[in-house]
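Input record (one chain):
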Amino acid sequence: TGNKWTDRVYYRYSGYPGGQKTSSPADLMKKSPDRLFRKVIKGMLPKNKLGDAILNNLYVYAGNEHPHQAQKPKQIDINTLK
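The corresponding structure, as predicted from the sequence alone:
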């Protein structure tokens, strides 16, 4: 549906009583888009050592600037992958 940016809820917990905080994807996108994509991709991976190893190989940058120019990376528009 069109309400996923506001209706979906991501939780985090500090470990203290009353330390559970919620945020929507729109809030995370405003704060730091790279964290939102890491959180979404982590949810798709297996919850074991392999998933952790795969996530360590993921590099997400918010803008066009990144330190991997020598490797000639391609920009992917995720809206046209359908």
